Amino acid sequence: MPKYLSAKPLWEKDTSPEGFTWLVGNDAHSNILVFARWDEAGNRSYASLTSHPVPHERYSLSLPIEGSWNEISILMTWLWR
Prior knowledge:
Blueprint: H1 3-6, E1 20-27, E2 32-38, E3 44-50
């Protein structure tokens, strides 16, 4: 099974506003977007995205729950030449 299909928060409530919320949607200076997705059971996934060509190694991100978080994927596609 592809990883995406096993991560229900990323798709299960796609057509419902209750399955999505912006956490950072106004950081134009850093060019970063952060959002949360939920599934029907209340499980969450968080995503942070940037289209800036420079890594943000010290970007601080506050998530709405305490805990340790694992980075599961880094995709760096260079479109700038």
